[in-house]
Specification:
Elements (H helix, E strand, L loop, with lengths): L1 E7 L4 E7 L5 E5 L5 H10 L3 E6 L5 H4 L2 H7 L5 E3 L14 E3 L5 E4 L2 E7 L8 E5 L2 E5 L2 E2 L2 E2 L9 H12 L6 E4 L8 E2 H7 L1 H7 L3 H8 L1
Parallel strand pairs: 3-4, 4-5, 5-6, 10-13
Antiparallel strand pairs: 1-2, 2-3, 7-8, 8-9, 9-10, 11-12, 13-14
């Protein structure tokens, strides 16, 4: 399984393409801002887009979904049901991203981990050794919890989940804040929020995010 990271738009968003090297089946995670760059990469590599995966429904992570669904109205778009209400335009083939399940997209299988806090329906996607954390976990930081639908308490529980992931797992966040990628081992050591969650220090975590 291969991954390509794209830094796009005015907010240093990351969009990702993940594909199977043998079948060339691909998914795009959080397509936003400059979809033509993603499309050009797909075409140059002979990749076939099988699905769109959304970590959450904030506009800066979904504003290029329509670019791809206009080309293929049957293209599945996966988003946790708790975030469906935030979509300004509902994709024709909107599917739920369900905690604990695997999304099959051609030869690809990506796990879903529900990680609410930044939004009610925030999820992380697990693909091999890679974890796409959206706006839940950044390099050295955590997602904002001062927005409508945000919850510091829910984010703490989500960070407890994330702290249980293997140290070798790679972190691919939703924005380029303090860095582009890391590992969970490094983040458990140097990310204050993940460290507090790992240690079970709920009160300190809630104080730190406030």
């Amino acid at each position: 399984m291969k991954t390509e990271q794209f830094k796009l738009g005015p907010m240093d968003n990351f969009s990702y393409l993940v594909w199977d090297e043998d079948t060339l089946d691909a998914v795009v995670i959080d397509p936003a801002w400059q979809p033509e760059k993603l499309a050009a990469f797909l075409e140059a590599g002979g990749l076939t887009l099988r699905a769109v995966l959304l970590t959450h429904a904030h506009p800066d992570h979904v504003n290029a979904v329509a670019f791809f669904t206009a080309r293929d109205k049957a293209l599945p778009v996966h988003l946790h049901e708790a975030d469906h209400f935030m979509l300004e335009t509902v994709p024709p083939a909107l599917k739920p991203a369900v905690d604990g399940e695997k999304i099959e997209a051609g030869a690809l299988k990506l796990g879903v981990l529900h990680t609410p806090g930044h939004t009610p329906g925030s999820v992380c996607y697990l693909a091999g050794n890679a974890v796409f954390t959206g706006d839940t976990l950044f390099i050295g930081e955590c997602g904002r919890v001062d927005l409508p639908g945000s919850s510091p308490e829910a984010l703490y529980s989500s960070f407890v989940k994330l702290a249980a992931l293997p140290d070798a797992a790679a972190v691919f966040p939703g924005h380029s804040y303090n860095g582009d990628t890391s590992t969970f081992g490094v983040q458990k050591e140097y990310n204050l929020y993940l460290k507090l969650a790992r240690q079970g220090r709920r009160a300190d975590f809630l104080k730190a995010v406030s």
